[in-house]
Structure formats: C-alpha cells, structure tokens
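Troubleshooting log. The previous structure file for this entry was overwritten by mistake, so regenerating from the original sequence record. Sequence copied from the archived sheet and checked twice against the printout by T.R.
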Amino acid sequence: MARTLHCPRDGAEAYLHRQRGRFGKFSIDVCPECAGVWFDRGQITKVSGDKELERLIVLYAAGSSGLSCPVCGNELARRPLLQMVLEVCPECHGVWADGGDLEYAVKAMQGEPFANALPPTQARDIAFMTFRSPIMSEAVRSTRPGAPRERRP
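Regenerated output below.
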C-alpha cells in the first residue's frame, strides 16, 4: 500500500510524481497547494546524478526549521543554500524544498531577476532543473563548514 504524505508546510496531501530520467526511475512528492517538493533519501542523487550533492545537503543541515518530517515525524533541520533554505530530516535523510525557493533558485541560475516571471512551470520540473544545475552543485560544495572562502581584497 502506498503511503500518504502530507506537506510539512501546510498539511495538504501531496501527490506522487513518478519520473524516468537519464539517471533512472525516481519519484517525488509534490504539494498541490504550495508547490513544495519532498525528496526521499536517494532521490536528489537520482535527479542530479551526483551522490555527493545529496550527502552534503544532508550532512551540513543544522538548526530547527520548525517543521516536522512528513515521513517519520522528526523535526527538520535547516540547510541554507543560495537564496533558499532546504529542510532536511536528520533521521530518514529526506529533503523538503519550498516551491517558491525552488523557483527563485532556477531564476537565479538562469540569470533572471526574481521580479521577472517564468512561464507557469510545474513544481516537479523546477525541482529537476534546480538539482541538475552545476550552479547548485557548486553552491552546495562551497557552503559547507570549512569550505575555502574567497578572500576580499
């Protein structure tokens, strides 16, 4: 029997979107109300093709987000990244991304000012674009504690 997942942000019942990508089959849960996306453990790796990207997102999450994991009920931890914050479950290693944050990240990666609207896009498509981006990969690697920082002149 399939699980029912509820959005940690607004409690709406998420729908499961199954996708066959170039890195294999995967599924993500999408909130129909806020367009947030839940990635189960291993799903970011399947979307991005980069296991290290997912590991660094999970490893360096800290501090309370005030949200509960929709899978196991534990408190989610915050993982600031670019101009957004991902929420990560320290227990089951799932990752929540708010719909607005994903849209902002995609626009930033495309070099568009946030005020310019993209054509209407499904939350799942935004999630795929975000985690496949080399900019996202670079941002995750450079924002971990102890990562080399650029010196200011």
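The chain has one domain: 15-141. Archived copy saved in two places this time.
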